[in-house]
Amino acid sequence: MSQEKVDKYKKEKAKRKKAAKKARTKEYLSIVVAAAIGVAIVGYIGYSAYDSLTGAANRQAETSSVTTQVDTDAISEYMTNLYAES
Questions:
Q1: How many domains are there within the chain?
Q2: CA separation (Å) from 14 to 3, 10, 24, 68, 79?
Q3: What is the pLDDT of residues 38-86, one digit of tens each?
Q4: Cα 58 from Cα 52, distance rounded (Å)
Q5: For the whole model, what pTM was predicted?
Q6: Measured between alpha carbons, how far is residue 64 from residues 55, 57, 59, 60 in Å?
Q7: What domain range includes position 51?
């Protein structure tokens, strides 16, 4: 019975290193994933704030600076000819 306990303890001790290494790897991986998610969230918030501030200014500048030229010479000539014939 005593030898069985010793063998069992040796097996558990051998597995203990692997289990500890696996636990450390898992913990490290979870920290890396959490940090990546945090950076992504902060980056998205920063980009959204920057885009909303600069995007509104750019849209306002675009709408106020748009000009359109229309050539109304043909319409004016047509109207002049209509009144001349009458």
A1: 1
A2: 17, 6, 16, 82, 102
A3: 999 999 999 998 888 887 666 665 566 667 888 888 888 888 888 787 6
A4: 10
A5: 0.52
A6: 14, 11, 9, 6
A7: 2-85
